């Protein structure tokens, strides 16, 4: 599945969440929700990496929680991009792939 297709599908799910819980998904709400999810990702990382309390989870459960929080943060990033009118693939190509040769070539010069 292409990245823009993921964004469309997750946006649809997020819209359903808004209807079920009576949340007006304004641009500000989406950004705040993204921020909340990134905080939860950081908390899961601290737990999984042994830098926070274990929350009564074993190693496998910690890794599952980390993956779930990553998915939440990434999903909300996709929703934010979609709501902001950002073409994900174009933005990533423009921002990152221009450096592909410079930083993947073993003979790249530091500068």
TrEMBL record:
Alphabetical list of InterPro entries matching this protein: MazG-like_dom
Keyword Hydrolase: yes
Keywords, alphabetical: Hydrolase
Domain NTP pyrophosphohydrolase MazG-like: 26-97
Single annotated GO MF: hydrolase activity
Pfam families: MazG
Gene3D superfamilies for this protein: MazG-like (1.10.287.1080)
Name of protein: NTP pyrophosphatase (Non-canonical NTP hydrolase)
Species: Calidifontibacter indicus
